[in-house]
UniProtKB/TrEMBL annotation:
<dbReference type="Pfam" id="PF07689">
    <property type="entry name" value="KaiB"/>
</dbReference>
<dbReference type="InterPro" id="IPR039022">
    <property type="entry name" value="KaiB-like"/>
</dbReference>
<dbReference type="InterPro" id="IPR011649">
    <property type="entry name" value="KaiB_domain"/>
</dbReference>
<dbReference type="InterPro" id="IPR036249">
    <property type="entry name" value="Thioredoxin-like_sf"/>
</dbReference>
<feature type="domain" description="KaiB">
    <location>
        <begin position="25"/>
        <end position="106"/>
    </location>
</feature>
<protein>
    <submittedName>
        <fullName>Circadian clock protein KaiB</fullName>
    </submittedName>
</protein>
Length: 113
């Protein structure tokens, strides 16, 4: 028997067979203006382009600073796309939709004029 049993705290283990499911982690530090903007902007982009195919995990580094090392977080807010592979990172408040779409390898539903 090969492989390993995924830990309960590994949400990506449930979705790793679906290449169309996005597991996103947003690292913030408290309820700052930038952190709140990043949360709102991420939710908007996901609803518009990934409806039903994503999960967002928000990690507050003021409450859990040790979690920054796992994804090598150097600045906040930072969005990490855990799945589908490869891992991707975007730093900032995610207000530039095109930058977010390109950074996450998401293609818009239709070309904009």
């Amino acid at each position: 028997m090969s492989g390993r049993i995924p830990e309960a705290d590994e949400p990506e283990a449930d979705q790793d067979m679906d290449p169309n499911h996005y597991h996103l982690r947003l690292y913030v530090a408290g309820q700052t203006t930038k952190s709140l903007a990043a949360m709102v902007n991420l939710e908007r982009v996901c609803e518009e382009h990934l409806a039903g195919r994503y999960e967002i995990e928000v990690i507050d580094l003021l409450k859990n600073p040790q979690l920054a090392a796992g994804d090598q977080i150097l600045a906040i807010p930072t969005l990490v796309r855990r799945l589908p592979a490869p891992l991707k990172r975007i730093i900032g408040d995610l207000s530039n939709t095109e930058k977010v779409l390109v950074g996450l390898d998401i293609r818009p539903k239709a070309a904009r004029s």
